[in-house]
Write the structure tokens for this entry.
Amino acid sequence: MIPRFFLFVLFFVASVPFKAYSWGFYGHRMINRAAIFTLPPELFTFYRYHLPYLEEEATAADRRRGSDPLEAPRHFIDLERYGPPPYVLLPPTWKEAVACYSEEELQSHGILPWHIQLVYYRLTEAFRLGDRDRILRLSADLGHYIADAHVPLHVTHNYNGQLTGQHGLHALLESRIPELVGSDYDLLTGKAVVVERVRDLIWDCIRESAGFVPLVLEADCRVRDSIPEDDWKVPEMRGQTRVMAYSPTYSMLYNRFLGNLMEERMRSAIHRLGSLWFTAWVEAGQPVLETDVKPPEQGLEAGDSKDIDRHLSQIHRCAEGK
Ligand SMILES: [Zn+2]
Ligand SMILES: [Zn+2]
């Protein structure tokens, strides 16, 4: 028996046409963009000026997968390889990791947490050198990998539900759900902070994500129990190709069973990313960036000036200790 509320939701969403998005792009762009608005004024002006680049390049790491064979393992880790939670066999640093396992083995199970540490280190160095292009490129990449680390299915071998008969879950969780309801997310997370122990923060992202894997799988089972199989998927055009994709009905119900999981993961990724950018800059000695540049007057997207207003009021609220 399906509760009446769901019947209403099903009826409503079934009449809404699905927009075709590139998988994963929406969430990555949103995280890089929103993280800018957590920054203190000394960094905000610089990052805000380069917002279009940081948003566009939020998915550069994914694009590199096709051309760089070393890229793919940087986006995930199969934690099961390291025993049951709390994964005591996991070496916290890359140096310790290569002392315990062969590099080939590490690569085959994914190196996401160690790679985030490396990108963070490189970003700090780029700030020290005042290398603007590298600062921007590494900031965008750091955003990508931090975002990946917040997706539960990026830290498990069962990354697409393929081991539990739930094939296709990855895109449903990290792409379709944010695309469907992301515009309702509250992405104001408070201002960035200096992170005391960067490595611990990175592992926190990973371990938290692992803790949500059971929920992600169970919620999907509940959807399957709630609606007839014929309603699970619908044909959809991706470019010139016709594919079967999870139906709006299925997706909305899945989101309902997930609760606010993806909104919270996104908020967490945003705040941590802003904090890591900020911490790298502080560690580098707080170099002066191009603070005299003004945000571009032309080519602003709708809502940009509103973003700045929101950011300023956020700083104001923080300054007042609220
Ligand atoms: Zn990725
Ligand atoms: Zn993914």
User: Anything to note?
Assistant: The pocket of zinc ion (ligand 1) is lined by residues 61-62, 75, 144, 148 (CB under 6 Å). Residues 22-184+195-318 form a domain with the P1 Nuclease fold (CATH 1.10.575.10). The longest strand covers residues 233-238.
